[in-house]
């Protein structure tokens, strides 16, 4: 039997934004000695191919940055949906991302009609082992995200819409607050911002006393603006969610109490009315606190939603150097699901009404 010739595909590297043609044949696999080895699918025996593709990578040919690889799944389905987290150092980005990853791993996107699969199982398991399991199972806070010249994505999963059967990788980018703040000096570090599908602005209620708000919000937005419509002044089309994280610290204060105590709507869908009611409450709460400046993204983006979330459900105990009790995220998936809905990635059966205002 003859093998069909490998099919070339155009691929966008999510890490460096380099577009290249992958020959559909050469893949990299991690060898037993810990080094990557290249191999050709067409030279492998037919029966071995699927096995070889599992956990394999494609090497990005961009030589301007350190050698890096993307999971093969990024080239096989719909283009990746890239989510960037924006917020100053200590805002809670890594905790929020890790708790979302934990909830996704627990199959909690199923209620919105999204089934999870692996976009490189081995790398995903590494992320769970390093950050998510310590947080959920041992109450350990993640270390501060390191500053690097070349940021690679933190975690990725493959999602499938249950009814329409669309398959796409969901890629989550975490980055040190410092790099976002001074993005002009570290343009390479925040390169991914120019390719984001949606942004999640992480609002830290511990910092409402800062009269100028979060120093990363403005730079992230202007970086995007230059990438998308240089010199333009209109609202940006990229969907954005504003997540007031650490809301457990505000859980007795109205109107936060209502959203922290209420479980997310028991209806198995994203309800536009509920999302709107919550957005309105967050907006009013921030204004009431004199934290209007944190609402900047609402004016800069065409469609935003606002959320109260808690990555951990409990405060960190500095004496014990652990979270005070078992970590239980609250409503962390809602900002994510909301931007996915705005991007058109939820099946109609799982969203009611309009999302994003
Ligand atoms: N009470 C409470 N504290 C939180 C929550 N999320 C994060 N924290 C606290 O905030 C600290 C910083 O959170 P990180 O997620 O590491 O912050 P970051 O935005 O990633 O910071 P950089 O990596 O330095 O940019 C954690 O160590 C916790 O002490 C939350 O949901 N509730
Ligand atoms: Mg971090
Ligand atoms: Zn690349």
TrEMBL record:
SUPFAM superfamilies, per the entry: P-loop containing nucleoside triphosphate hydrolases
Give the Pfam families listed for this entry: DO-GTPase2
Residue ranges the record marks as coiled coil: none
What are the Double-GTPase domain coordinates in residue numbering? 82-249
**InterPro entries from the entry?**
DO-GTPase2, P-loop_NTPase
Instruction: State the name under which the record lists this protein.
Output: Double-GTPase 2 domain-containing protein
């Amino acid at each position: 039997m003859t093998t069909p010739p490998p099919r070339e595909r155009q691929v966008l590297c999510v890490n460096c934004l380099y577009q290249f043609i992958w020959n559909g044949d050469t893949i990299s696999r991690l060898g037993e000695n810990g080094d990557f080895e290249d191999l050709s699918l067409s030279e492998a025996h037919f029966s071995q191919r699927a096995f070889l593709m599992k956990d394999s990578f494609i090497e990005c040919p961009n030589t301007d940055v350190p050698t890096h690889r993307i999971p093969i799944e990024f080239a096989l389905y719909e283009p990746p949906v890239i989510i960037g987290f924006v917020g100053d150092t200590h805002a809670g980005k890594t905790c929020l991302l890790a708790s979302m990853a934990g909830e996704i791993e627990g199959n909690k996107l199923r209620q919105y009609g999204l089934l999870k699969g692996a976009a490189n199982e081995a790398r995903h398991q590494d992320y769970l082992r390093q950050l998510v399991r310590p947080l959920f199972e041992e109450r350990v806070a993640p270390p501060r995200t390191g500053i690097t010249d070349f940021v690679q994505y933190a975690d990725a999963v493959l999602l499938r819409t249950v009814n329409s059967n669309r398959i796409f990788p969901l890629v989550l980018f975490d980055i040190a607050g410092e790099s976002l703040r001074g993005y002009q000096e570290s343009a390479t570090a925040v390169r991914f911002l120019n390719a984001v599908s949606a942004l999640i602005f992480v609002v830290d209620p511990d910092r409402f006393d800062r009269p100028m708000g979060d120093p990363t919000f403005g730079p992230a937005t202007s970086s995007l603006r230059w990438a998308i419509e240089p010199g333009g002044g209109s609202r940006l089309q990229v969907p954005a969610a504003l997540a007031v994280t650490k809301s457990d610290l505000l859980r007795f204060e109205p109107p936060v109490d209502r959203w922290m105590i209420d479980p997310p709507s028991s209806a198995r869908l994203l309800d536009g009315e509920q999302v709107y009611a919550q957005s309105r409450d967050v907006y009013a709460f921030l204004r009431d606190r004199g934290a209007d400046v944190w609402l900047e993204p609402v004016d800069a983006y065409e469609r935003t939603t606002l959320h109260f979330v808690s990555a951990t459900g409990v405060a960190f105990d500095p004496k014990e150097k652990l979270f005070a009790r078992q970590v239980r995220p609250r409503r962390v998936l809602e900002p994510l699901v909301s931007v996915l809905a705005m991007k058109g990635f939820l099946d109609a059966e799982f969203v009611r009404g309009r999302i994003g205002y």
